[in-house]
Amino acid sequence: MTSYAPEADGEPDPGEVVWGWVPFEEDASQGKDRPVLLIGRTVVGVEEYWAGLMLTSKDHDRDAADEARHGRHWMDVGTGGWDSEHRPSEVRLDRLIVLRSDAIRREGAALGREVFDRVVAEAKRFHAVR
Known about the structure:
Layout: E1 16-23, E2 31-44, E3 47-56, H1 64-69, E4 74-78, E5 89-100, E6 104-110, H2 113-123
Antiparallel strand pairs: 1-2, 1-6, 2-3, 3-5, 4-5
Protein backbone atom coordinates (compact mmCIF):
# COMPACT_ATOMS: atom_id res chain seq x y z
CA MET A 1 0.00 0.00 0.00
CA THR A 2 1.34 3.43 -0.90
CA SER A 3 1.51 6.19 1.64
CA TYR A 4 3.44 9.37 2.36
CA ALA A 5 5.03 9.56 5.79
CA PRO A 6 8.65 10.76 5.71
CA GLU A 7 10.33 11.32 9.08
CA ALA A 8 13.94 12.40 9.49
CA ASP A 9 14.60 9.62 11.99
CA GLY A 10 17.15 7.47 10.16
CA GLU A 11 14.52 4.80 9.42
CA PRO A 12 13.05 4.27 5.94
CA ASP A 13 9.64 5.83 5.32
CA PRO A 14 7.40 6.14 2.26
CA GLY A 15 8.13 9.39 0.45
CA GLU A 16 11.84 9.22 1.17
CA VAL A 17 14.64 8.67 -1.30
CA VAL A 18 17.02 6.09 0.15
CA TRP A 19 19.96 4.13 -1.24
CA GLY A 20 19.82 0.46 -2.08
CA TRP A 21 21.27 -2.18 -4.37
CA VAL A 22 19.36 -2.29 -7.68
CA PRO A 23 20.09 -5.24 -9.96
CA PHE A 24 20.67 -4.63 -13.66
CA GLU A 25 17.77 -5.75 -15.83
CA GLU A 26 20.02 -7.56 -18.28
CA ASP A 27 21.95 -9.40 -15.54
CA ALA A 28 20.35 -9.59 -12.10
CA SER A 29 23.57 -10.99 -10.62
CA GLN A 30 25.08 -7.54 -11.12
CA GLY A 31 23.78 -4.12 -10.16
CA LYS A 32 24.56 -0.81 -8.63
CA ASP A 33 23.91 1.21 -5.50
CA ARG A 34 21.41 3.90 -6.45
CA PRO A 35 18.73 6.17 -5.05
CA VAL A 36 15.24 4.66 -4.72
CA LEU A 37 12.01 6.49 -3.91
CA LEU A 38 10.07 4.44 -1.36
CA ILE A 39 6.36 4.39 -2.19
CA GLY A 40 5.06 1.76 0.24
CA ARG A 41 5.84 -1.18 2.47
CA THR A 42 4.52 -4.57 3.41
CA VAL A 43 5.33 -7.09 6.10
CA VAL A 44 5.56 -10.78 5.27
CA GLY A 45 5.96 -12.84 8.43
CA VAL A 46 8.69 -11.02 10.32
CA GLU A 47 10.30 -9.48 7.21
CA GLU A 48 9.59 -5.92 6.14
CA TYR A 49 9.77 -5.12 2.42
CA TRP A 50 9.72 -1.78 0.67
CA ALA A 51 8.38 -1.01 -2.79
CA GLY A 52 10.28 1.70 -4.58
CA LEU A 53 11.15 3.32 -7.88
CA MET A 54 14.75 3.98 -8.90
CA LEU A 55 16.05 7.44 -9.67
CA THR A 56 18.68 8.66 -12.09
CA SER A 57 20.32 11.97 -12.88
CA LYS A 58 20.45 11.03 -16.57
CA ASP A 59 18.08 13.20 -18.62
CA HIS A 60 15.71 10.96 -20.56
CA ASP A 61 13.67 13.84 -22.02
CA ARG A 62 15.96 13.84 -25.06
CA ASP A 63 15.34 10.15 -25.79
CA ALA A 64 11.82 9.74 -24.33
CA ALA A 65 10.35 8.20 -27.49
CA ASP A 66 13.13 5.63 -27.72
CA GLU A 67 12.89 4.85 -24.00
CA ALA A 68 9.10 4.36 -24.27
CA ARG A 69 9.54 2.12 -27.29
CA HIS A 70 11.69 -0.12 -25.05
CA GLY A 71 9.10 -0.02 -22.24
CA ARG A 72 10.96 2.45 -20.04
CA HIS A 73 8.98 5.42 -18.74
CA TRP A 74 10.47 8.29 -16.75
CA MET A 75 9.17 11.33 -14.87
CA ASP A 76 11.07 14.42 -13.71
CA VAL A 77 11.13 14.86 -9.91
CA GLY A 78 13.55 17.75 -9.54
CA THR A 79 16.51 18.02 -7.21
CA GLY A 80 17.02 16.89 -3.65
CA GLY A 81 19.43 15.88 -0.93
CA TRP A 82 19.80 12.37 -2.39
CA ASP A 83 22.23 13.80 -4.98
CA SER A 84 25.27 15.57 -3.54
CA GLU A 85 25.64 17.56 -6.77
CA HIS A 86 21.95 18.63 -6.70
CA ARG A 87 21.38 17.50 -10.28
CA PRO A 88 17.80 17.20 -11.52
CA SER A 89 16.54 13.62 -11.20
CA GLU A 90 14.04 11.39 -12.95
CA VAL A 91 12.17 8.42 -11.49
CA ARG A 92 11.55 5.28 -13.53
CA LEU A 93 7.84 4.54 -13.36
CA ASP A 94 7.63 1.12 -15.00
CA ARG A 95 10.13 -0.82 -12.86
CA LEU A 96 9.13 -1.58 -9.28
CA ILE A 97 12.07 -2.30 -6.98
CA VAL A 98 11.52 -4.42 -3.85
CA LEU A 99 14.01 -3.94 -1.01
CA ARG A 100 14.24 -5.57 2.39
CA SER A 101 14.63 -3.09 5.21
CA ASP A 102 18.13 -4.33 5.93
CA ALA A 103 19.09 -3.66 2.28
CA ILE A 104 18.44 0.07 2.64
CA ARG A 105 21.71 1.72 3.49
CA ARG A 106 20.91 5.30 4.22
CA GLU A 107 18.27 7.96 4.10
CA GLY A 108 18.75 10.46 1.29
CA ALA A 109 15.96 13.00 1.55
CA ALA A 110 12.20 13.27 1.22
CA LEU A 111 10.35 14.09 -1.96
CA GLY A 112 7.73 16.82 -1.63
CA ARG A 113 4.16 15.56 -1.13
CA GLU A 114 2.83 17.02 -4.39
CA VAL A 115 5.60 15.42 -6.47
CA PHE A 116 5.23 12.12 -4.58
CA ASP A 117 1.49 12.03 -5.29
CA ARG A 118 2.10 12.66 -9.01
CA VAL A 119 4.74 9.91 -9.14
CA VAL A 120 2.41 7.38 -7.47
CA ALA A 121 -0.47 8.34 -9.79
CA GLU A 122 1.75 7.81 -12.85
CA ALA A 123 3.26 4.58 -11.44
CA LYS A 124 -0.25 3.14 -11.12
CA ARG A 125 -0.34 2.99 -14.93
CA PHE A 126 2.32 0.25 -14.69
CA HIS A 127 1.82 -1.41 -11.29
CA ALA A 128 -1.07 -2.64 -9.17
CA VAL A 129 -0.25 -0.34 -6.27
CA ARG A 130 -2.96 1.12 -4.11
